Amino acid sequence: MIDFNYYAPTEVVFGKESEAQVAQMVKKYGGSKVLVHYGGKSAQKSGLLDKVCNLLKAEGIQYVTLGGVVPNPRLSKVHEGIDLCRKEGVNFILAIGGGSVIDSSKAIAYGVGYDGDVWDFYTRKAVPKSSVPLGSVLTIPAAGSEMSASSVISNEDGGIKLGYNDNLCRPKFAIMNPERTYTLPKWQTAAGVADIMMHIMERYFSHDTDMDVSDNLAESLLRTVKEAVFPVLKNPEDYRYRAQIMWAGSLAHNDLAGCGRVGDWATHQIEHELSGMFDVTHGAGLAAIWPSWARYVMKEDVSRFVRFAVNVMGVANDFTDPEGTAIKGVETMERFYHAIGMPINIHELIGREITDDEIKEMARKCTRNYTITQGNFKVLKAEDIEEIYRMAR
Amino acid sequence: MIDFNYYAPTEVVFGKESEAQVAQMVKKYGGSKVLVHYGGKSAQKSGLLDKVCNLLKAEGIQYVTLGGVVPNPRLSKVHEGIDLCRKEGVNFILAIGGGSVIDSSKAIAYGVGYDGDVWDFYTRKAVPKSSVPLGSVLTIPAAGSEMSASSVISNEDGGIKLGYNDNLCRPKFAIMNPERTYTLPKWQTAAGVADIMMHIMERYFSHDTDMDVSDNLAESLLRTVKEAVFPVLKNPEDYRYRAQIMWAGSLAHNDLAGCGRVGDWATHQIEHELSGMFDVTHGAGLAAIWPSWARYVMKEDVSRFVRFAVNVMGVANDFTDPEGTAIKGVETMERFYHAIGMPINIHELIGREITDDEIKEMARKCTRNYTITQGNFKVLKAEDIEEIYRMAR
Fold this sequence. Notes:
The structure is a homodimer. The first copy, chain A, is of the alpha/beta class. Chain A folds into two domains: 170 residues, Rossmann fold (3-Layer(aba) Sandwich); 209 residues, Dehydroquinate synthase-like, alpha domain (Up-down Bundle). Chain A contains 16 helices and eight strands. In chain A, the strands form two sheets. In chain A, strands 1-8-5-4-2-3 form a six-stranded parallel beta sheet, with helices on both faces. A two-stranded antiparallel ribbon of chain A has the order 6-7. Strand 1 of chain A pairs antiparallel with strand 1 of chain B, so a sheet runs across the interface.
């Protein structure tokens, strides 16, 4: 295990009545002029946007609204938000939605006090010195952005998707009402679960294996989510299991599962290029890549894949055949992905095989990428990444 | 499951080199005039106190020191600390030690800005409106005070031990170097583990049982600690397992394991009276009480005790005999306590049986107690508590 810092200061307000506290929470954390930032029509249709605005009004808190954030949130929208915040003198950002809206809010928060282009932070040209405080009313459990230090933005110019992590942008609070996730379609529910599990798995597949607390917590969270998804797909209004997925989604990415080790994050990085090029759902993209990544890197530490197979996927350990047990773990994961409606390769994801040129282009982008690492479990060069795309084709 | 708030903002700096960051951390959280608060001679003998003071000096941070905090920390010492802080204009408290020092620091932090006696907060006569910010360099993993909202103080006048919980006093940072726990004697190591496990178990034995994330995390932490203690008792300088116990100790009491349910806390309350009267080691007192509490309340929900037996204690589930399985779980816990050198009843703890008068006295104090609850798993009246003391005699 390695030395670590753990810092997850976000105040979580969780439960059926949680939204009622939104105005008090904004006030508590200093908000008096708020940007209410949201995505598409669902926040309007569900009445959540109106409810939140009315609560702010009743508490005498001024606000402006900005909607239209899309999945794989765009830099142009971030620029629009920064301009609006400056013009209106916004001192708090309230995100209503899922990871895209929260990630976009974080980018706006960095940008307001910065003279240059906020994209500089994502390309590592500059480091933010300030960030407007923000909080969220979460409606999609997946990205874990509600408690995390990370933000991922897509620049339309060149189709580049980059992430930037900084404790500066950790949200002050997260309001989570599992009932707000009842209307999530099956596809989005399942993709969210794939994303949540991958946030844990990226931390779990590590060569720093002597961190028992983190390993055992990670396995426990993975098993919990894996079991919670089926009741929810059957009955979208199952409060108990919607709640498990929602809370696990935050714990999956607030660093709890990663303490004491370096994560891998290659699957995320390989998927980012897929999203950048084909604008696919992030969680589904991860499911399409992971089995190929797993097979390609397995030899780096078969024992870790055996542990995953046995402790997470419930595979019987064949002590005479570690490789066989490890492979069964990956196959069981593939069956799990299929069972929840997720793809296990790229042609299932986008409806066709990707071309050699596309593979080369994505691998090239991936390796000049500034995000996270290029794989700690196995360091990946461009030709390795090409091979993984080819296996996942 | 019930609605919940989760707020654990403490910044954790964990590892071999962690102490080196103490001055930067104090500065980061606004400390310029620091009370360095510690317990007995071990902080001096180990050189830790000098090291910390030198680091503060090197960073130009002024400080005063106050030592002499004892286990079951005394109100009189708290008063001394409050006077010193006021006289010296202290704006940050740095606790060096374990739960006693940190709990005492929290009490001082509440008291500095309050006109009346700080004991008023513990007796629920008043609510603190401010708290001097504090941080810690942890040397004893047990109480979990380094990330928690709780503080327990003993008033020598009447031998009353009371706790008070408030997010106001959540420490700003916790510096944890497992190497600093190498010199802990076996008894204290084991008592710490008993305390850590009990913080989880108090949250686990609840009638709000449909919170799978919390249940599974709780079981995972319990199993991790239960396995980590033996290598550490054998080799006190086993970094890996010292680290697991230290980190689990913080997670056991920062509320993670309790999200979505009401805990029980009766064992803690019953033990507090034992500590108040006999000044015993808290963790050992908990071990002496829990088996009797468990047998007394088991009928309230046998299935929970079966789950504990199977998932935590590794008992084979006899599906035809839930009560038998549940009892085996308690017996296995007793064998575990004995294996790590802990008592399983009061005469093993204090060397004699307690008298009927002492039982009556403790039960009386316990039921007019202001701390926590009087048992959520089973509401306990004075006669119930007497019976538990009698069973544990």
